[in-house]
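Single-chain item
Fold in token form
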Amino acid sequence: MNKFILDNGAYLAKSGFSTDEYPKMTPNYITKSKNARETYIGNELEDCKDFSGLFYQLPFQKGILVNWEIERQIWNQIFKRSNVDCPQTQLIVTEPIFNFTYTQECLEELVFEEYGFDSLLRINAPNLAAFKYLKTNAKDFCLVVDSGYSFTHIAPFYKGNIILEGIRRINLGGKHLTNYLKETISYRQLMVMDETYVINQVKEELCYISTDFESDMKIAKFKGKENTIARDYVLPDYAGLCKGYAKSQEESTGIPLDSEQIIRLNNERFTVPELLLHPSDIGIKEMGIAEAIVDSVESCPSNIRNELYENVLLVGGNAKFKGLKERVFKDVRCLVSNKYKLNITCDEENSLSYAWYGGKMLAEDKEFDDLVVTKKVYDEFGHSACKKKFDLNN
């Protein structure tokens, strides 16, 4: 029986069979060009020649799947490109922690009644990440920090089971960072409020987490070569240049060459992703990642706190920011007693797909068949069978 893993992120869907070495990445949205003549579903965006002023239609709003018509079109493309034979395939699909019942039931109906999959495992991404970490490192405990597009979840685990009282959610993710960068650049340099696609690339290429915020702020105030932080980003013109790029430190002078149009990032490079640590900087009344980690662990029984602090795992798209691992260690270390041994793990290269690899490992586990709901069972008992099997409170 084939096993297909779909880590259904709000911005990127990571998918593939358990026998695949790597997951396929699919934009989890539909885009329309500026003139609205062209519509691109998921990976069809690769055919776009002009990314200026793209209009996005996302199935997710604030991290919750609300538009099933859009999601259905994207899933159709994913399953078609991977040649998924649904009746002969077991599906693992991720959902947010504490997802709405209505959304879960819509998913189950789509999986069983429309696609006709053989069986389903509905699970959250931090659980898959924890499964991979615990199996790989032969541990019993871990604390997963999953920072994605719409929000950040902190979830403690014991032997693969989530500890409910320790779950924390920060309503801030990559989307907020991109929007804040757009606002900052538009106010200081050039109106880019409609250029979400391009500014997201700028964020991914140039932004980083400062490990010494005050020192970097001082450097950013210097002029000329003394300022080692300021960098230029050449914007695409969609004539001779279809994709923008960051200039090296030596090439970044702040002066455009020939027909170039540039954006110059200085302290924005680290003040924008700093929101992950201090959301209150722009008036968002949420804890930062370090505070949320401590709050999560301290809500757990005292006899397991040392194990949790020793096994903190950073995953998700925002874990790719250079310096996040070091900064989280530094900030948490300042907040907790030295009697606790602290260890932060982050696979920056695979942080985005870490949960998918966890699903790949789980699919090959000997107990996998006990975790799923089959179509036969669903046809007989309906949503109640899935609720009994998958809900966190059971």
